[in-house]
Amino acid sequence: MRICDFLIVGAGIVGAALAAEIARRRPGSRVLVVEKEARPAFHQTGRNSGVVHSGVYYTPGSLKARFCREGAELTRAFCTARNIGYDERGKLIVATGEEELPRLEALCRRAAENGVAAVAVDGAAMRRLEPAVAGRAALRIPSTAIVDYAGVTRALLADVENAGGAVMFEAPLRAVAGRGGAYVADVGGRQVEAGRIVACSGLASDRVARLLGIDPGVRIVPFRGEYFVLPPALNAVVRHMIYPVPDPSLPFLGVHLTPMIDGTITVGPNAVLALAREKYGRFSIDPRDALDALAYPGLWRMLARHPKATWKELKGSLSRRIYLESVRRYCPRIGLADLAVYRSANRAQALRRDGTLVDDFLIETAGGVTAVLNAPSPAATSAMPIAARIASDIL
Hints:
The chain is an alpha+beta fold. Helix content is 33%, strand content 27%.
């Protein structure tokens, strides 16, 4: 039987950051990271848009607002120290219609509340910055950057191993039982005794919480985001990240243009209900996942509150031409032939039974076990502050 002081479940960026933080704070402690996949950053971390967010959108005083701002600085410092690509391109949030201008002004006020540097620009100034972008006005966020989050995750796990910790792949958590003041976990058929367990399990966070004896009080409902990539001839069509003005009632930021760290530009994502948590084809179905989602009253209550947005996202998923309309509102140079299928990603969104979306990071602890229950975007940006919070609570 393997014995460790801290068992971290999940080798995405949050789990990797936590393991590295514990190893840094407690030199000599036995830290073990277990991951059910064959490599780290396999799901959300390795499939997101690679944006280091600034924190402009989030409710002032929330964990998202605080940790995003702190996390951007920590991520930049980490990447600089490790020679990991980090490119501070900046973001333009573009109002394309008169009705969006008040929401853009509200975002400008929120940026000030959250301590995020933001510059309001009119249409003429915006076009000087980005000649291919159309709109009435924009909010420029200079600090928004792009990065390779999978590379950051690998570097964090290397820190864990260099400090004497270990990482096990193809090791799913199957069962946990208390034994005295410790826990015995079955990870892929191998027995591990741990003093403390922390689950950073993303799309499986509610299920893993139950294995740990924590009632999550929420259900993870996966939303698939579909991305396209532009042809090399359009790799310079924009320099900034170009975002629409978001709907404040929804947690999704809308279809946007993102220059990637490899030089390509992606378009997306939309947000449609996924019937498989960890499969990414448009028509992928996992019977257990589908039943979990469709039998959950909270899903139907949430969809009933947002019928227009639900229908809009579904139409965009079914028709590339309709999807393109969202993009051409602010970048009319892009045509249908420019959208090549890139990849899809599933967002783990915690949903309450009454149909309300959990808006902030959610972490629960019971005895010697902790579960990260809700850590969607901007969790990748915020991974290091999330890890610091958990480490402070359990050490």
